[in-house]
Amino acid sequence: MTSTAEGRYKFIGKPMPVIEDRRFVRGGGRYINDLNLPGMLHMAVVPAPVAHARLLSDDVSAALAEPCVSAVLTGAELTQMMGPVPQELALPNVVWYPLAVDKIRYAGEWVAAVVATSRAAAEDAAELVTMEFEELEPLVDPRRAMQPDAPLLHEAEGSNVVWNERWTWGEVDDEFAQAEHTFEYTYRWNRHSGVPLETFGCVAQVDPTGILELWASHQNPDIQQEVIKVMRTPKVKVHMDIDIGGSYGSKRGRKQMYLVAAAALRTRRPVKFIEDRIENMQASDGHGPDRYYSVKVAATSTGDIRALDIDVIEDLGAYCGRGPRQITKPTSAIVGPYRIPAVRYGGYGVLTCKTNQVPFRGAGQSPHNFILERTVDQVSRDLGLDRVEVRLRNFIQPEQFPYEIPGGAIYDSGNYPGAAEIGLKQARMEDLLAAQAQARAAGRLYGIGTAGGLDPGGAAAEHGEGVRIEIDATGHAVATIGFQSAGQAHESMVTQIIREELGFALGDITVQRGHGLAGIYAGAPTGNRMTQMLGTTVFQCSAKVRATLTKLAAFTLEASEDDIEVDGTSYRIAGDPDRALTVRELAKIAYGPRLKCPPGMEPGIVEQNVYAGPDIVTKRKLKTGAKQFPTYSFDFHVVVAEVDPATFEIKLTKYVVVHDCGTVINPLVVDGFCYGGVGHGVGGALYENFAYDPASGQLLASSFMDYLMPTAHEVPRVELHEQVTPSPLHPYGAKGTAEGAYMTTPSAIASAVEDALAPHGIRITEVPITPQMIFDKVMAATADKDGDE
Amino acid sequence: MAENNFTTIRLTVNGKQHEARVEPRRTLLDCLRDDLVFPGTHVGCEHGVCGCCNVIVDGDLVRSCLMLAVQADGAAVETIEGLADGDELNPLQEAFCAKHAMQCGYCTPGMIMTLEDLLRRNPRPNEDELTDALSGNLCRCTGYEQIRQAAESVIAAAQQEGERA
Q1: In the beta sheet, which residues pair with residue A657?
Q2: Which residue, A138, A232, A320, A563, is the most exposed by fewest CB within 10 angstroms?
Q3: How many domains does chain A contain in total?
């Protein structure tokens, strides 16, 4: 259990039971599948059976003739009803609609949608849709898709490569020319993702006044503006009062929302679509990064890393979607926790026959942290140096903050050696080394891994975050926020800050969620953003409320505002405690006859606030390609892995985490993010892989039988420790968090497994690390050895 | 389109008699959620892996996505909605809140039903037995640690109770 800021605050830093949990434990969460509207129809989709084909025709007449079927939508029809789905890059020739138009670009892509009185009836009719197509070569490997003779996924674009940049920050070429040692490593990060247990779902209807209303398990409320643009109507209302059953960045089914909106407009009835599991795995545009890396390193004999030259090939999937954002995110923390003075970073974003990427938990920072930490380990081994020593000697030192990295981003604060020291001490490193020596002598494969991980927080800070706080006539506080949550306990955080700042009792605070027409300026809970952005805006808005209450109290008590002292919900004259007013009394005045209020004061107590982000984000110019986040959290992990010498099964027998996200607001919540992040990391490191068949392009992991997610057997118990290095950019010193543990775990596990396999001289350069992969490497290493003899 | 072939089933849910007219292909999960309106039981994978839809049927833990509604004719079904007594949560529900044993809450009902079933059969499971029981349910948010802590706190309380008795 973490604990922080003891004594400084009444509520901040203390575990506060999470408000949302009370409804969840009773089965009282209100998820999208629980929403049923009168007269509602249901939708099912028709998936493409092949990965790449020219769609010659589709015949929906038999489906349409079925009883209970109201409509069948096709891609061609959608092009008449709506604009294409917007993507990260302006690529007019990469046109994306919710249903395939003219071409099928991945197996499982939706070709038609059937709307009927029940999901079962819609599925029955969907089976009657037939299509004619001419098959083309499935493009599964982006390296093949980059070849000049590869077929084009989007012919008009002229290339399958849609993103190609390269940036140089610092004296990279000089460093390599003068380097004592240079090394080159390659890495492979296979596709995995959040895979929430709730699939994506959406309900749409046109209300009696003609407003297109949408509810969805969507994590980004800023979709409102996009719906207006795509559906070509200003009358849109995206509701934000749905509980989301997990997202981790991956719940952003934009094409699904437009498809359901089109179905509702077409039928003039409410329409519901809930993806089934296979639809979700194959076609929800929810996969994470999928990368091939080549990394060159310049280093000194003593292990100082002087320069990195990183080349990445990112397999984006069939449409550009929001994938390119994941390639560029790491430029905000390109050197991780290390003092590396020069970096070149660039590569290719390539279209292939797979579902689109989405910025999943860390938006591409996790693979980047993985290649940094793997590279530190490999450089250490290749120079014959201790991995921990090399980490320590390259760490940015505590007195160097704020620290500017190549490209210009500035880390706010940190103490990386401090975190490492806690981790090594708590893990009892010396005991572990002794245990390892003993294990190795007994023929066991026992490995110790260490890794650090930078965790940028506060994505898109420059887009601001809003809140409205009103004190109603009975003296209760009502805060309205402009987005919905997927388990981050935002209602609780807002409540906790209002308790701290305005002194309200728990039962006197209501946090509600607005909708797209509620007038709340809102960003989105992405990129460790909400402690920074929502937390600060609630802090600032609370101060406005306090100022209004103070003004009212001063007027009523006939005192100057400077003489008013605030104690919880009591506003009194300093030194005269008998002359005091409670918030309840002040509210009665504010909503009562105007004569009792200060002249010029508006009736009621309603304050709005939009926090626009710190100056470091909004006012500094970075080098081309670089990105800045407001805060930088840090994780240091120590792991013990044992590999079975016969089956190569991997077991994690010890897991120690040191987490530093500055001041912790609610330890219960932050602890949960750390434990859960390790869980996701274990999955990505050892099990999860959206593997595609190279010949047919079919997704081989489209159910939970073959996309393997870790259970309580696979996720180890975690010993969690805390270090607090406050951020100067937050009112409480808090930093964004929630992604850091996930962004460090794969590195730490790979480090441990590689160490376990050191007797075989094997390097780990790919995740997931499977027994089959180790078997192949051991066989290859043995063959090499035999060949040498 | 399948021929409509409805069967009337009678079952108790959380101690109360219910009746539904269902097609033979209707799962118990869909019947509970959509016909009898117990939305606390969640749809996760619909192929028996994740445990989001776990309910207790005649004293056995069941994946309601893998059981047909017609098979539950005459059965006594318990869902997450039946655990609390008015405003008073049951000990597992209280412990889940105290330890924040969830984030998005989607797996929570199934997770609690699994543990409820375990603790009825074995009120003092050891760590391995707890892991075995939990391993039938997936959670993508918590890494299981705070769920374990919640279960352990209930087990420890039961242990103390036993020692006192």
Answers
A1: A637, A720
A2: A232
A3: 3
| 3-state DSSP assignment of residue A321 | coil
CB A274 within 8 A of CB A253: no
Dihedral class, residue A458 (left if φ above 0, else alpha if ψ from -120 to 50, else beta): left
Out of A555, A588, A612, pick the residue that ends a domain: A612
Contact check, Cβ <8 Å, A715/B143: yes
Strand pairing class (A69-74; A161-169): unpaired
The chain B residue lying nearest A36, using CA atoms, is: B34
The interface predicted TM-score (ipTM) is: 0.97
A454 and A504 share one domain: no
Closest C-alpha to A538, from A590, A481, A471: A481
Q: Any idea which fold B7-82 has? A: Ubiquitin-like (UB roll) (3.10.20)
pLDDT digits (tens, 9 = 90+) for A239-254: 999 999 999 999 999 9
Amino acid at A436: Q
Name the burial class of residue A313, with classes exposed (0-12), middle (13-18) and buried (19+) by CB atoms within 10 angstroms of its CB.
Answer: buried
What is the model's pTM? 0.96
pLDDT band for A784, please (50, 70, 90 cuts): confident
Question: Could you tell me the two tokens for A18?
Answer: 């999470």
- Rounded CA-CA distance A678/A442 in Å is 30
Question: Is the bond leading into A86 cis (omega within 30 degrees of zero)?
Answer: no
Spell out a b/e string for A676-692, using b for 16 or more CB atoms within 10 Å of the CB, else e: bbbbbbbbbbbbbbbbb
Residue A581 confidence class, pLDDT cut points 50, 70, 90: very high
DSSP A724: -
- Angle (deg, nearest 10), helices B108-121 and B91-98: 130
Is B45's Cβ below 8 Å from some Cβ in A? yes
Do A587 and A640 belong to one domain?
no
Residues A655 and A671 in one domain: yes
Shortest CA gap A170–chain B (Å): 40
Instruction: Indicate whether A427 and A517 sit together in one domain.
Output: no
Beta strand pairing status for A342-351 and A305-317?
A: parallel
Task: Mark whether A575 and A667 lie in a shared domain.
Answer: no
Domain-terminating residue out of A224, A248, A283: A283
Nearest CB to A197; choose among B41, B79, B138: B138
| Domain boundaries along the sequence of chain B | 7-82, 91-164
Which residues of chain A make contact with B42, given a CB cutoff of 8 A? 31, 33, 197-198, 245
Structural contact between residues A637 and A449, judged by C-beta atoms closer than 8 angstroms: yes
For residues A567 and A678, membership in a common domain is answered with no
Say if residue A646 is in the same domain as residue A661: yes
Mean pLDDT of chain A: 95
Q: In CATH, what number is assigned to the domain containing residue A642?
A: 3.30.365.10
A interface test, pick of B145, B146, B149, B152 with most A CB neighbours within 10 Å: B145
Residue A216: inside a domain, yes or no?
yes
Question: Could you report the per-residue pLDDT of A407-454, keeping only the tens digit for each?
Answer: 999 999 999 999 999 999 999 999 999 999 999 999 999 999 999 999
Residue A727 lies in a domain: yes
Helices marked H in A209-323 — which ranges?
Answer: 223-230, 254-267, 277-283
Q: Show the domain range for A258.
A: 32-139+193-283
Of B47, B104, B112, nearest to A25 by CB-CB distance is B112
Q: Are residues A748 and A599 in the same domain?
A: no
Does the pLDDT value for residue A3 go beyond 50?
Answer: no
